[in-house]
Amino acid sequence: MPESRRAFMLATARAAGVTGTGLGLIAGTAAPARTEGNDLEILSAALLLEHHAIALYGHGLKNALFPPGLRAYATEFRGDHQGHRDTQIAIIEERAAAAAPAPRDDYDFGHAPAGESFVRLALEIEIAAQRAYTGLISRIRTEDYLLSAAFILVDEVRHMTVWQRVLGLRIY
Fold this sequence. Notes:
There is one protein chain. By secondary structure, the chain is mostly helical. The chain has a single domain (3-166), classed as Ferritin, CATH 1.20.1260. The protein is 72% helix and 0% strand. The chain has helices spanning 3-16, 20-27, 36-62, 71-96, 116-139, 143-166. α1 crosses α3, α3 runs antiparallel to α4 and α4 runs antiparallel to α6. It is globular. The two termini are 13 Å apart.
């Protein structure tokens, strides 16, 4: 992956609040042991990316930053992320005996430009989420997490594919 894309993806993950093992997986620099604790840490990182994606799509829809012909995709993808969030919260709370990470209250999308540039921001969060779930699947040991991550990964790849196609980028 080009260094500028990696840097942007890591900045996106950090902006979502991802740290530690989850950030290492997204960066491709960590291969944590397969333990329940690491499963939960990775799942929490994925949940933080879902919160960030929901906030980004919400901001874009509220402020008409998505091109008019793409608002239906943005609305659909935000709904998908809300479903992913709810699934991850249920799994974390069932297993962790602790609250799932809450969304940040200080996302900064004020710099976000309208149009194609905003679609590129949406694509970057989808790439970060896809990498998080790919990392989760490769390191997970708990079957219900694995199944959840696999279904969510399909959505993330679909979102990426739509935005790449819209932007005229190579899909594969």
